[in-house]
């Protein structure tokens, strides 16, 4: 029997889903959790696919750990917990090409193409929805540069280490991006508040002032009753 799970690396905990799948088999859940955490300890902070191959008769089991999804590996490199959500407007980080190569190298055996360069481009494509820059540029621009051969040396050597000097430059550039983003968001919020205030003023201007009564207009001659006019004629 095979049981597929998605657990946090090195931090799997008991839960209803696990109890429902494994409880009826009479296997010690605590032992499974302990061994899964040991097997996934190198993926701390990441969601990791795990498959349990269980022998219901002997109560024995084997643990197969698969590499985390690309999005999880990229978030680890960026040191973030979630993607942008507004990738065109808000950027969440600035990767070095070496970090992209590192993720591609981790996922290479599980990817459709045997061409490592194509796999690197695939990882770059994942950065679009995540909201990450690469080498201070948009991912689509990096894809074009990879096709043109700009990063062939790093890709062919499967270089995964980023020098401290390069890391500092990338971080400095991204701080400027963050500052611009914060200023833009602040401006949008101020404009929204101003628009709401203007809307509220317009509504107040249309509403009658409390305590003010509508003035009655004096009756005109045309408004007098016909019988009153007849009485006046008789008197004459």
Written overview of the protein:
By secondary structure, the protein is mostly helical. It has 2 domains: about 1-65, 2-Layer Sandwich (Ribosomal protein L11, N-terminal domain); about 70-185, Arc Repressor Mutant, subunit A (Orthogonal Bundle). Helix content is about 50%, strand content about 10%. The chain contains 9 helices and 5 strands. The strands form 2 sheets. Strands 1-2-3 form a 3-stranded antiparallel sheet, with helices on one face. Strands 4-5 form a two-stranded parallel sheet. Helix 3 (about 70-80) crosses helix 5, helix 4 crosses helix 5 (about 115-130) and helix 5 runs antiparallel to helix 6. The longest helix has about 45 residues, at about 165-205. It is flat, with a radius of gyration of 35 Å.
* Helix run count: 9
Overall geometry comes to flat
Radius of gyration: 35 Å
Q: Low-confidence parts lasting 5 or more residues at pLDDT below 50? A: none
H/E order of the elements?
EHHEEHEHHEHHHH
Average pLDDT: 85
Tally of separate domains = 2
| CATH class term of the largest domain | Mainly Alpha
Strands in their spatial order, largest beta sheet? 1-2-3
Give the termini separation: 117 Å
CATH homologous superfamily annotation of the largest domain: Ribosomal protein L11/L12, C-terminal domain
- Beta-strand proportion: 5-15%
Number of extended strands: 5
- Helix vs. strand class: mainly alpha
CATH architecture of the largest domain: Orthogonal Bundle
Query: Could you say what the CATH topology of the largest domain is called?
Result: Arc Repressor Mutant, subunit A
What portion of residues is helical?
Answer: 40-55%
Largest beta-sheet details:
3 strands, antiparallel
């Amino acid at each position: 029997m095979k049981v597929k799970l998605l657990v946090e690396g090195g931090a799997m905990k008991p839960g209803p889903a696990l109890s429902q799948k494994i409880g009826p088999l009479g296997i010690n859940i605590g032992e499974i959790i302990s061994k899964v955490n040991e097997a996934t300890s190198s993926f701390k902070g990441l969601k990791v696919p795990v498959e349990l191959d269980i022998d219901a008769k002997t109560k024995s089991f084997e643990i197969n750990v698969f590499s985390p999804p690309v999005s999880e590996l990229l978030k680890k490199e960026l040191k973030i917990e979630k993607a942008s959500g507004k990738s065109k407007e808000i950027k969440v980080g600035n990767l070095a090409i070496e970090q992209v190569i590192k993720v591609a190298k981790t996922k290479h055996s599980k990817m459709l193409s045997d061409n490592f360069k194509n796999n690197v481009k695939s990882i770059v494509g994942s950065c679009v929805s995540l909201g990450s820059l690469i080498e201070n540029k948009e991912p689509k621009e990096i894809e074009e540069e990879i096709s043109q051969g700009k990063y062939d040396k790093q890709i062919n050597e499967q270089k995964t280490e980023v020098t401290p000097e390069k890391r500092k430059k990338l971080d400095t550039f991204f701080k400027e991006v963050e500052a611009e983003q914060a200023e833009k968001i602040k401006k949008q919020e101020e404009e929204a508040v101003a628009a709401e205030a203007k809307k509220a003023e317009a509504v107040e201007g249309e509403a009658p002032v409390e305590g003010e009564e509508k003035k009655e207009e004096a009756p005109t001659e045309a408004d007098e009753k016909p019988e009153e006019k007849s009485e006046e004629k008789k008197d004459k």
